[in-house]
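ESCALATION

Customer reports they have been waiting on this structure for their group meeting. Please prioritize. Original submission:
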Amino acid sequence: MECYLDNAATTRPLKEVCELVSRVMYEDYGNPSSLHKKGLDGEMYVKQAAERVAKTLKCQPGNIIFTSGGTESNNMALTGAALARQRAGKHIITTCFEHAAVHEPLIYLESLGFEVTYLPVDGMGHVEPDILRGALREDTILVSVMMVNNEVGAVLDVKTLSDIAKAYNPDILFHVDAIQAYGKMKIIPKKMGIDLMSASGHKIHGPKGTGFLYRDAKARILPGLRGGGQQGGMRSGTENVPGIAGLGLAAEYMDQTLNERREKLFSLKKYFIERLGEVDGAVVHACDPDRVLETAPHIVSAGFPGVKSEVLLHALEDKGVYVSSGSACSSNHPGISGTLVAIGAPEELLESTLRFSFSSFTEREELDYAIDALKELVPVLERYRRR
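Update from on-call: job pushed to the front of the queue and completed.
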């Protein structure tokens, strides 16, 4: 049996998305900047996708900038906003457990003379509002927080955090990394005080190499790519029309099925956490069993004391169970998980934790199979390590 439980890393594209991408690539391949019919057909797909994405956020199509994915969206938001507003100040606030796609651009900005404050989180992965309030300064120009932590599934109250920042100074830009949140919860940027928001196509059953940045009309950022002036000059270069079309269709599907999918995912998550209690020593991170609905519906982070995560990951792989030892991107930067350290996870779990993540395609039988594999493997690997 094959059991794919790594949907926070990437999801299987919808069949309809694959068919649309294929059709656009093979039949409607015109350059959307061309003035003839083939070009106009391509432009139509880009406009339709922008309308589909905008509808999910209750915003205007002009608020959507298509990118190559979440990493580019985060880079565009952070560096673009910082460089555009540096005359007003050079202080940026973020959290201590952001994804590398946020953390690394901020390190780059620090090398340019910006100052970054990293807010701590509690054991549930939450930022205390008073901590943000105390970090704000006259020269603060940007606050960036993730909505859902990609490793443990903690959900941050971005509305409250944005309200605090805007009350201090309405000109502070508020950026949200919604890469693990978009498609799993309803997001209305205007109502939540979000000026900039990053999302990724392959996390929502869309094509890899696609994403978008939501930008409020009043949020000024400098473009990262200059050239042909596509997308209002915000991201020059010929648009990835097949990918954008697929992203738009996936976004529409995720929005239309949001409530039923959330119900299914939370049901799977509760069931999986309950069954993890049968696995020797298993510990679930940043999730109170009585408050599961306050977390992301698709992520479970569990530690297995005495078992190296990489060893267990490959042992599960041999049985057809595919999981992650953290963020998929962290495989390029191996080491101790900063997220687990940030939430105060016990030292013995820092290198003994796996991430299990679900999607619309996940079925309970897969979870049973994964639990049976864990119940078989964990005791054996514990004994092996003690020798």
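Sent to customer with the following note: The first helix runs from residue 15 to 26.
Escalation resolved.
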